[in-house]
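Internal tracking record. Fields below are filled automatically when a chain is submitted to the structure queue. Please do not edit lines marked as system-generated. If the sequence contains nonstandard residues, flag them in the REMARKS field before resubmitting.
Queue: standard
Priority: normal
Entity type: single polypeptide chain
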Amino acid sequence: MSIRHAGQHRRAAGLIIAAAVMLSGCDYWPPALQTQIEQLRSELQTVMMEKAQLQNQLTSIAKAKDDLQMQVDDLTRTNRDKSVLIASLQSSVTALQERVTKSSKPVAAKAHTGKASAKPAVKTVQKAPVKKKTLTKSALR
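SYSTEM-GENERATED OUTPUT FOLLOWS
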């Protein structure tokens, strides 16, 4: 055999061995590779635990958000109701003020003209001087 044929045979044998190892699966893992695999598994477990914690936090935050949104909706509804009530009360106050103004104008006019007649003129009445009685002789006795 020539050197050339021997090299080809070796290559062919190497390929057959490599194919056989690939097909049969290799149960041998080098220690460094096993260490890396274990490290990746522990990191995966840590990440999965963190993921579960974050999902729990997300769930609780979503529930809190829903509760707060319900409170906001209730407060918005209450605010709208109170605004309607305030507007109604303001219109009532305005109407009452207009009524008071309308009713006080005629009364004020009557009262103004009536003040002169209702208020008596202050007159000073002078009393007549008291006559002195003259004493007569018969009165002295």
